[in-house]
Amino acid sequence: MAELDPTGPLRRIVILGGGSAGWMSACYLAKSLPDVRVVVLAAPEIPRIGVGEATIPNLQSVFFDLLGLSEDDWMPHCNASFKMGIKFVNWATPGRGEARVRDAYYHVFGLLREHEGLPLSQYWTQRRADGEPTGTFDEDCYWEPALMEARRGPRFADGTSATAHAWHFDANLLADFLARHATTVLGVEHVEDRMTEALLDERGYITALRTAGGRDLEGDLFVDCSGFASLLINRTMGEPFLDMGDRLRCDRAVATPVPYDDADLEPYTSSIAMSAGWTWKVPLLGRFGTGYVYSADFQDPDDAAREFCDLWGLDPAEADLRHLRFRVGRNERAWVRNCVGIGLSSCFLEPLESTGLYFVYGALYLLVRHLTDRRFAPGLVDRFNAEVVRMFDDSRDFLQTHYCLSPRTDTAFWRSQQDLTLSDDVREKIATYRAGLPVNQPTVDVGTYYGNFEAELRNFWTNGSFYCVFAGLGIEPDGPMPVLAHRPEAVRSSADAFAAVAAERDRMLRDLPPTVEDVRRVQGRGDRTT
Ligand code: TRP
């Protein structure tokens, strides 16, 4: 670059990598910073059938709304289907039973309803203590579980939304779609080449990426989307990766797509506990993506493949199994000098709560709010890094609770969950729950929650999430919320609030179409019959 003035405005951003993180970054940054030149360095990829990506509702409000793309605009390009929550199967019951499904609970999107200023969870606990008839927590407090069981979708026949929902899709197709959008609509330049080295100045800032084809791609800011290879942030900048294998034990997966009779398309992700981990199931039209996430310390890959194939009735010798290894943890700092890692180069958590893409656009959202000029004010970089740490560690802690509160003791893997390193924050949340108090109850309603990422970031794992998982595992508070002893009238009238949930459920069961109808219509396969 001709001039050496390090204080001017940003002019060029170079992104290394063309996976979903690379193209999400390209779209997000080009749209947010229209006068900045965005260049993506990515070799053409060999296309593969994706094993299914699961997401959360703010994908639309934080990412696609910024691009001006509605569900109906983007869904047809990536074989997307709808998701209303996660069904956790066999996480509570020790031992291998006869039946495939021994226990199940739903983790439902959206906020828990309130009655007289307190969430329904507190009344549910009180009613149990009072010996009132109750069902399971999720079915009593939300109407969505019954809808998921009945395979209804989250939208009415006219396409309007009935409930907070997210999506399943093929992440490779999403990356292709975003690449086309970036290059044809947003003016992003795609350099189809490989990086051979990163050039640094005397301060240790990256000045350019040198390509195999002999080009030097100069830039002011470099975004590392090179995946687990982490070519810029770890290899070039030397930032240490903090391995968190002492907090989450799974470090491998074996995955494959499976043909699927989508007449019965499930509007939820399944997470099925196994002997040394759990298996995801992400239903799409025509197939579902699935993978067994397990710990190599407790099961070898052949045995894991056998257990996984047995679950779906596949022949391990015939199935197209992909074996993956991953590192769990994050870089000490996501942003170092003029290099920021986004996606797997920055951090990785197993996909248990569908946080993968959220970490990508969540970091991009934070990045554009902390960018200044080419000096990259250190205070802002530090603040961005602290926000990313909070976003990641908070989710890591929540994931841990699924394991350490599980009553399963049937294998060494499950027994070892009692020895996890836990943060003070998560210990306090577990203690709060046991004391009968709401955990992390946001003071906004559902609409405001998903429309306001700042509010969601502060209360990402809400009281409803904690209750779904903890109560779903059979862990109940030690007693009801103490203050309710002084409010007998509110406790009595809470029966009406539960009745309202049941009435809503019955109305929705009547009004909402099967999810497969809506998904086929969006995909332009509406006239297909089975
Ligand atoms: N705040 C997030 C949301 O409501 C929490 C979340 C992430 C979540 N993954 C989830 C909630 C899965 C329910 C199910 O989307």
Automatic annotation (TrEMBL):
Transmembrane segments: none annotated. One of its GO terms (molecular function) is nucleotide binding. Keywords: FAD, Flavoprotein, Nucleotide-binding, Oxidoreductase. SUPFAM superfamilies: FAD/NAD(P)-binding domain. 7-chloro-L-tryptophan binds at residue 83. Signal peptide: none annotated. InterPro entries: FAD/NAD-bd_sf, Flavin-dep_Halogenase_NPB, Flavin_halogenase, Trp_halogen. L-tryptophan binds at residue 353. Its EC number is 1.14.19.9. It is an enzyme of class 1 (oxidoreductase). Pfam families: Trp_halogenase (PF04820). The keyword Nucleotide-binding applies. The active site is at residue 83. FAD binds at residues 18-21, 344. Belongs to the flavin-dependent halogenase family. Bacterial tryptophan halogenase subfamily. This is Tryptophan halogenase.
